[in-house]
Amino acid sequence: MRRSVKLLPFTAACCLLCAGVAPVSARDLPRIEPVQAGISAERLDLLDKAIARTAAERNIPGGVVLIARKGGVAHLSSFGLADRATQRPMRPDDIFRIYSMTKPVVSVALLTLYEEGKFQLNDPLELYIPEFSNLKVFAGVDEDGNMILEEPKRKPTIHDAFRHTLGIGAGGGPAPVAQLYTDRKIWVNAMTSLSQQMQLLGEVPLLYHPGEQWLYGYGHDVQAYLVEYFSGMPVDEYLEKRIFTPLQMVDTAYGVPAEKRGRVAALHDVPEGPPPFPPVDMRPSTYERFAEHPFGTLGLWSTAMDYARFAQMLLNRGELEGVRILGKKTVELMTANNLPPAIGNLGEAQGTPGTGYGLGVSVQLDVAADGNLSSPGAFGWSGAATTHFIVDPAEEMVAILMTQKAPYDERMLREFQTLAYQAIAE
């Protein structure tokens, strides 16, 4: 049951738009005036007021907004409360559970190993994950209710793992397959390692033939396992060495140290108890387990400024402040629509017509079809606690919203996108 909590009026403590109130621990991107970035200060004020009002109406306690353009942060503001229980106001340097915004980071990590010649995208996964050697495809049930299994038309590849065309779900699908996921506890809340997960996934059938459908599943855990396989390092250590330290993302990790706990935004409105299916337990205590058991699907904590540094690196085609994480052509491939022609876009799969999918990020293909302000080629992703990032190469813009509201509020994220784009003046 969802808890009902009365918000304070947003004209008082719950509407503290406080850009720059607290020092930001992460290394800041350069700050520039909105006019230098071609952004209207008046429209930024409209953004702040509208997002605070939207948050109040949708019962979201507070959050942080960051808008960067032309290489500098033109706007960083916080609104509302970080914690209803203590009434602590949100601060710009607060730390958030970013859930599926972990995924693009893991994809970048695997792409750094791609650039080292460790693999090709069309390599069958069974070359590196022997447990996938005998995968079958679910093809229905017979008259006795037994599963009918087929040989895959082709072997699933690393490319499939990147773009969610692998055939592996996350616990859903037809009842016989879903029951196998439940019986074997194939969910990140219970598994202890990526190697254990690969073994379990190798024992259940694929939900469709590789490359024929888009299904949001455990593909990023497969990617994280491959990071460990090719690097010889645990995925959390590899991310720290190859991404977080070079980019000076000092507040991004699979756990939060004791000295930073006072900056953690509370997760609000989590359903009472774990849902029966799909088994995504969003209770705060569950998220803590990923510090010891890192996965590629979720688990990272971050700040708006830290994630902006990651996003700006992608906007700069792989480089930030003289540090190169990926090559230009790799970023171009990552942020192109990688879906096979038979799939095309995510309209049918996710209800987002005009949107494609790259290597770990969604990609804007048709602005009018999507029905929101954007640019062709813009890319990004969201997290289950209502976090979101947008990178728009055409507008030289990064936009980030961090909140901590479960379950995920897609409408608020779309409204944030509209508000961020309407602030562009030139």
Descriptive report:
The protein is an alpha+beta fold. The chain folds into two domains: 13-98 and 255-293 and 300-335 and 377-422, Beta-lactamase; 109-231, DD-peptidase/beta-lactamase superfamily (Beta-lactamase, 3-Layer(aba) Sandwich). The protein is 29% helix and 15% strand. The protein is built from 13 helices and 14 strands. It has an eight-stranded antiparallel beta sheet with strand order 3-2-1-14-13-12-11-10, sandwiched between helices. The chain has a two-stranded antiparallel sheet with strand order 4-7. Strands 5-6 form a two-stranded antiparallel ribbon. Helix 1 (41-57) packs antiparallel against helix 13 and helix 2 crosses helix 6. It starts with 40 loop residues before the first helix and ends with a helix. Mean pLDDT is 91; it is low at 1-25.
Name of the CATH architecture of the largest domain: 3-Layer(aba) Sandwich
Largest sheet: 8 strands, antiparallel
Question: At the fourth CATH level, what is the homologous superfamily of the largest domain?
Answer: DD-peptidase/beta-lactamase superfamily
By CATH, the topology of the largest domain is Beta-lactamase
DSSP summary: helix tally: 13
| CATH level 1 name of the largest domain | Alpha Beta
What is Rg? 21 Å
Euclidean distance between termini CA atoms: 46 Å
Number of domains: 2
Q: How many strand segments? A: 14
Oligomeric state of shown chains: single chain
- Can you list the strand order of the major beta sheet? 3-2-1-14-13-12-11-10
Query: Average pLDDT across residues?
Result: 91
Helix content: 25-40%
SSE succession: HEEEEHEEHHHHHHEHEEHHEEHEEEH
The helix/strand class is alpha+beta
Write down the overall geometry. globular
Low-confidence stretches: 1-25
> Strand percentage, roughly?
5-15%
